[in-house]
Amino acid sequence: MNTRNWGIMLAAAAVPLALAGPAATAAAAPEPAGQVQQQAFTPIEERYWNDAGLRQLLGDPVDSQQSDGDTTYQQYQYGWLFHTEATGVTEIHGDIAARYTDIGGYAVLGAAEADERVAPDRVGRYNQFAGSDATGPASIYWTDATGAQGVWGPIRDFWESKGWEVGYLGYPTKTTTATADGSGSYNHFVGPNGDGASVYWSEETDAHSVQGAIREAWAAQGWETGELGYPTTDEQVADDGVGRFNEFSGLQETGALYWSPESGAHWLRGDVLRHWYDLDRYSGYLGYPTSDPHEVEGGVQVDFQGGYILRDPATGAISDAPW
């Protein structure tokens, strides 16, 4: 074959390749053997796999990553990880994570806004959460004595206004719970000097605290389902600087619980309470109540330091007398 004819054959062989275009040329070039397309880590995966200590705290994943809007979260054996653009990747673990899961997890409390933190008193630990429509912003606080307890809604707002765990209420000893009558919610707290305190909320009365001996007397008459109903004030110091009291909504009539060191804590309501007010309460001749309402011959009576008030249930008449 002469050189000319050989050149013609090469030119002819090149025509199909030229006509096939760039796509065909690229397809004809195989990728190097063993090359694998790598997928980038998510922010949650990146923190988890780059932090051996965190992996030890959380254990293995128990579910795949979940997304809710701009929030991503994942559950592990002993905790959770969350990611948003605003907070980065945050974690919860241990008892706080167990309580979070028990309450309902992400669906109820939302994502943690920061990693678990040490409380200002250096005793407890806590996480704050974004919350949900049902709870609003929420918190879980833990101490060795109280365990991990959740607080949210108006009760959390009230607790925050009183100084969180370093205020007079101290740490929560119970997670926010619906009241027995279904009209409100409540939390119990350590309280001043460890004597116990409670915050009760209803739409009608808002959130108020009851503590110490007054709380014990309120509990004895049935909490919010008893004659006194929900608190309508926090515990107040009496004008004489000696006694203390809370006022209550009452199931049928408004009431109050009064305490002094000498008389203890006792309740009264309705006409008897109003009559005592007319007699200048504890500053009058009757002084502080020394009994709850009780039946006697002739009606229902409340005893006081200086006398008594009697109500005739048949006529509604109110009378008072010294001892």
Descriptive tags:
alpha+beta, 4-stranded antiparallel sheet, 8 helices, 31% strand
What's the number of extended β-strand segments? 20
Overall pLDDT, averaged? 90
Tell me the quaternary state.
single chain
Report on the biggest sheet: 4 strands, antiparallel
Q: How many angstroms separate the termini?
A: 143 Å
Spatial extent as radius of gyration: 35 Å
Strand residue content: 25-35%
Q: For the largest beta sheet, what order do the strands appear in spatially? A: 1-2-3-4
Order of helices and strands: HHHEEEEHHEEEEHEEEEHEEEEHEEEE
Helix content: 25-40%
How does this structure look, described?
There is one protein chain. This protein starts with a helix and ends with a strand. The protein has helices spanning 3-27, 43-50, 52-58, 94-103, 106-109, 153-161, 212-220, 270-278, and strands at 66-68, 71-75, 79-84, 88-93, 117-118, 125-132, 136-143, 147-152, 177-178, 184-189, 197-202, 206-211, 236-237, 244-248, 255-260, 264-269, 294-296, 299-303, 307-311, 318-322. Mean pLDDT is 90; it is low at 1-29. With 323 residues, it is of the alpha+beta class.
